[in-house]
Amino acid sequence: MSKHLTFVVFVAAALIQSVAAAAFGWYNPVNGNIHISNGTGAPLAHVSIISVSGKLTNASLMASIQGATKDDSEFPFAYTYLNFPVGTHDTGNTVQPGTPVTALSIEYRTASLFGPLLKGYFVEPEPSSCLLALTSAVAFSGTIRRSAPRQ
Question: Is the pTM of this model over 0.85?
Answer without folding.
Answer: no
